[in-house]
């Protein structure tokens, strides 16, 4: 077996996942691809992303593309947590799990018996992770949190205003996606911390505070040292920092060191600029950043991207094309590394399907063997059997409406 | 001692950190705040971010703001890895560390004896993490990778084009920052995987592949199912998805469910729109997304943000102000949660200094007690003493130019 399929570093860890949409599924996707057994507990109607994540193929209802890409390698069971029987199955799952993750509010967790104290009573080893909108105890505690609301409140939108004139959202569910990764990291840190026989603990991962820290760590800038200082990094906040149009597309050039700047002037056939005091040092180019960026932009229009790339490389100036999403799909590095693949064994539509894979490599453990995101309730029978429910009991649960 | 200062879940883990600038320091910042002993090995001139991360106060050279915010809770030692004596100290550090992290290229690691095989020979438990630009073995292997180049190549910039007409970079070192978090997560997963007596392993965290997977997981969309499908989520890609101007600022409103849409129409005094078939369901609003967003934008101009917030809350419509970076600094939730603090014991400039803290909470382990980012070489003496170097040997290393 190759390292890539030896199971992953989290093999043997079970994650009970009561999250939906993006932030929680991002966290559990990472854990699942690293080999954790992620049991996705869905309400009878399924994770909302099954319907809102785009159009599913006719032969695979609920398998919307965004659902697929955030839920690979997980198992699905439907449990109606509004019923006592559903809660009882949940508790039995909790007793055998290492991690419980949800983005329910505190009150809802308590009413379902899924709060940290109840879980710890069932299983002292449990890492109980709550992804919240806002850290508990603060004035916004319990307020609804959606990605765009967090982008606005945390200063993400204002950074766009500073860069380009008006507040905008990033073209991603940026804070959901980032905070999901942060949650996966915190969970693994807590798994390290409990060791082989220590108790688990409760973790709270607040979206707003994490997003604001993300923004401010980059852009607190001179404001760090007092009210007189200015925010932000001028090389990032200028509207001139952008992919540069060439004759046929866009290119990204990074010429920040003195050697790169000199190489750039040679590459564009303007060697005299190497003696220009405006561009002679990092400090000088920062001072004249608008001039420097404008000069770069004007120069790039003279050739095609394919012409520029070897020329810039020859002068040791880092540069790469700016892909469109279309051209990205054909990128030889992305395909060659196996991060973007044509699914062969996991076809669900009528045409060849594109799938993504965990991008990191682990020399010893590899990652989990790839599995398609689950159909709703796909693994109910096997999960309940593993928990020791008899065929009769399983049928009873189904009849009781606990499961779909 | 409160949970917040009981040391963190990674207490007892030592991280040997040979990274600089943003991506690596982002990873080790998370580990440091979770209690790991992060030893930051700097070249004699220091981490480049000490100079490029903004202006340092006159009394604290090298303490540029961006350096400060990405290097809290770490210890610093200067080692000249070009010298055999510097390499020897490095090997002694490696023998006592759980994690080694760098973003050097493979060839440089081998030449310094810091490659995974050499490290494993010194310390079989070592988690050896390399953050690379591009997964090794592919056509871009070893090409220089900077954040903007990765943003362009991975499709981040093209998502801006799809949203707003031209390719742009995010106003963040977005891929550095995200991939740093991903690296911290992978390291902790590997620490879980080695258990109490298993061997470590080598991890590769490639920036491009991770960034492309980030983009495509959100925006592969219907293209997942074949060449005929379109990319992206139209609710995110539309230029109309943005913070909405009010009479005095900007507000973010999330009215996606039917109940929220109806509440919104009531809040703006247009209850008749509740019967408008264009807006009667999630599918209808998606179909008429431009109309829906325009209507929302027009309505918000009628009042101030402070007037809208309680009115929208009253109708159960999620909404929050879009902060400017200035107003964010006064946010009562951010301050109240202790994520943004006035530093009291760690003043280095002349005015009150602002600091950031790890945003997550850990009920059992807490986080590491806060410490300012280190001055260059601040901890050399104590680190070498811990390694068993005598006072004489330490002086010898200093004279040999190994340390600053």
TrEMBL record, chains A, B:
Xref: InterPro entries: CoA-transferase_III_domain, CoA-Trfase_fam_III, CoA-Trfase_III_dom3_sf, CoA-Trfase_III_dom_1_sf
Q: Which Gene3D superfamilies match?
A: Crotonobetainyl-coa:carnitine coa-transferase, domain 1, formyl-coa transferase, domain 3
Q: Which GO terms describe its molecular function?
A: transferase activity
Q: Which domain of life is it from?
A: Bacteria
Keywords, ordered alphabetically:
Transferase
Identification of the protein by name: CoA transferase
Source taxonomy lineage? Bacteria, Pseudomonadati, Pseudomonadota, Alphaproteobacteria, Acetobacterales
